[in-house]
Design brief:
With 456 residues, the protein is of the alpha+beta class. It has helices at residues 4-10, 18-26, 38-41, 79-82, 96-103, 121-129, 142-155, 198-201, 204-221, 244-254, 320-329, 353-362, 384-387, 403-410, and strands at 32-36, 58-59, 66-69, 86-88, 111-114, 134-138, 160-163, 177-183, 225-235, 256-259, 270-273, 280-284, 294-301, 336-341, 344-349, 365-368, 370-376, 379-382, 397-400, 422-428, 431-438, 443-445. It contains 14 helices and 22 strands. Helix 9 (204-221) runs parallel beside helix 10 (244-254).
């Protein structure tokens, strides 16, 4: 049963239809949607394209890579899911793609911050949208930052830096970002249909606490947005206190200008305005759209500076001998710079080295670019991150596995192969899953132990 206080608070809000709203929650209907990884789709062999039943799905109208599925398959047992071929993302939140198209357009080499990023849906979307940009994907909670890192690695993009910081830490990077996305922690009422247990955790008091926290987060991070930069604010809450009221607070306290979008009326997304400053927001009701509850708005920063000077942290770079060993293993394109993090060699596009140095001066970085591997004596041990990245690995031996053997690999169990001796890429459907090393009397499985499939 939906909280009566929530229903009462929504009466009078534009687009709210009590009976239809209650009926859709009672119905038990579940909507499953995925967003394809455009960088990996061209690699997938044709016979595997129906793995997640894509042929029977329909497109999410506001995101060109989004699709609805006719039913929810077992993603755990789809090797292409582990290879980063797609991300299971709620359709409403994919509207971020359309918002970027209308507020940013095709601007290149943008620096973007996804402030509250775990588990990674919006970060991977941002990495696909800003293909020549830099995406800083931040999560304040350490355990959730680990999940975020895993999902970003599987996505394979080389333009993501994962950080584990409090929003206020970004004040040290004044006028640094072109775009900041705040998918703010909220009371979660928009997920009641998807997760009925969330109903028991909802309260009016929590709504108030979330609203105050959302305001603090926005105020803490705004100095990091440069002049004319775009601030995107979203929640999965229906509550006006967390949506329209926060928009009014943002306009009043942070001195930004609301952005209005042109939304196709066939999409049934409800445009609303805040009471005081008439800031535009967009409500997604599950009885009107095919998706869950969602709210999103955009602002343009009208003060600040175009850019600012930032001190740099000195990165550790590999020596000449290390680079020779690396390049004898993989012919890395000249567009990449190689640096060291602990013992690992990592690669990032040369154009982002200065930005990385600036970020490293002020933030705790969990992952930057792509980990290539480590040098152990005369041997180079390649990283799993390299295997699933978009860095070309055509020079390596590779074997294509059946689905059964691919799942055995992902469980770190035994399977047979006639692969040549040495390092070999394991693939399924044309996409790399990871590494094996074939020795004279055994095969070493290098799939990450902590990511292995535990179910049978």
């Amino acid at each position: 049963m939906l909280p009566p206080q929530l229903i009462q608070s929504l009466e009078g809000i534009k687009g709210f239809n009590r009976k239809a709203f209650e009926d859709v929650h009672i119905s038990g209907e579940q909507v499953t949607s995925i967003r394809l990884n455009p960088e990996k789709q061209t690699l997938i062999e044709q016979e595997h394209r129906s793995t997640v039943d894509l042929r029977l799905s329909t497109a999410v109208p506001w995101c060109e890579h989004g699709f609805y599925l006719t039913e929810r398959p077992s993603f755990t047992f789809d090797p292409l899911f582990h290879a980063g071929a797609y991300y299971v993302q709620e359709a409403s939140s994919m509207f971020l793609w359309e918002m970027l198209k209308q507020t940013i357009g095709t601007s290149s080499q943008q620096k973007v911050l996804d402030l509250c990023a775990a588990p990674g849906g919006k970060s991977t979307l941002l990495a696909s949208y800003f293909t020549d940009g830099l995406v800083v994907s931040n999560e304040v909670i350490k355990s959730r930052a680990a999940i975020l890192t895993e999902n970003c690695i599987k996505w394979g993009a080389d333009n993501i830096i994962v950080t584990n910081n409090d929003p206020k830490d970004f004040q040290r990077l004044q006028n640094f970002f072109d775009v900041i996305v705040i998918d703010a922690p909220c009371s979660g009422s928009g997920l009641f249909r998807k997760d009925p247990t969330a109903v028991n955790e909802w309260s009016e008091e929590n709504v108030k606490l979330c609203s105050l926290r959302q305001q603090r987060i926005a105020a803490d991070v705004l100095p990091a947005l440069k002049q004319n930069g775009i601030l995107i604010y979203s929640t999965c809450s229906y509550s006006k206190q967390e949506d329209e009221d926060v928009l009014d607070w943002i306009v009043e306290e942070l001195k930004v200008a609301s952005c209005r979008l042109q939304v196709d009326p066939n999409w049934k997304i409800v445009e609303v305005e805040s009471d005081k400053h008439k800031a535009f927001g967009y409500r997604f009701y599950p009885d009107q759209i095919k998706g869950e509850g969602f709210f999103i708005a955009a602002f343009r920063k009208t003060n600040g500076e175009e850019d600012a000077y930032h001190q740099e942290q000195t990165l550790q770079f590999p020596g000449k001998q290390e680079l020779l060993q690396l390049r004898s293993f993989i012919p890395l394109p000249e567009t990449y710079a190689v640096f060291k993090q602990a013992e690992a060699l990592r690669a990032i596009k040369e154009i982002w080295v200065t930005a990385l140095k600036q970020l490293a001066k002020h933030l705790y970085i969990k992952k930057a670019g792509v980990e290539l591997g480590t040098i152990k004596g005369k041997d180079f041990i390649p990283s799993h991150e390299l295997a699933v990245s978009m860095i070309g690995l055509e020079s390596f031996a590779a074997i294509e596995l059946s689905k059964e053997d691919a799942l055995q690999y992902l469980k770190r169990k035994e399977f047979s192969t006639d692969a040549p001796k040495g390092w070999t890429l394991v693939k399924y459907g044309g996409l790399p899953l990871g590494w094996i090393k074939v020795l004279p009397n055994r095969i070493n499985n290098y799939y990450p132990q902590e990511w292995r499939i535990l179910k049978d």
